[in-house]
Amino acid sequence: MYIFKELATNFAVTDVDSGISYTLSSFLGKVVVLDLFATWCSPCAVALPYLRQLHLKYKSELFQIISILLSISISTGFGNGLDSQLRSRWRNR
Fold this sequence. Notes:
Blueprint: E1 12-14, E2 21-23, E3 31-37, H1 42-58, E4 63-69, H2 80-89
Parallel strand pairs: 3-4
Antiparallel strand pairs: 1-2
């Protein structure tokens, strides 16, 4: 087991549904899984149900999943339909 001796670099993200901004430091003391995914990435889509299972199993404990969608460009419309499908299956519940 690896024990981290340094804190991760702080960053801020904004929830696309609520507009609320979060910083990594706001989750201090929790185990954080940082999930970077893209709509065109098949392995990313396969991982979503497993991440959801982790969330449901540990949501009452000191555990947080932060999923960040990596997109080419919103203006291109690339993957927009899939984005909404994925968001409807994966909400902060």
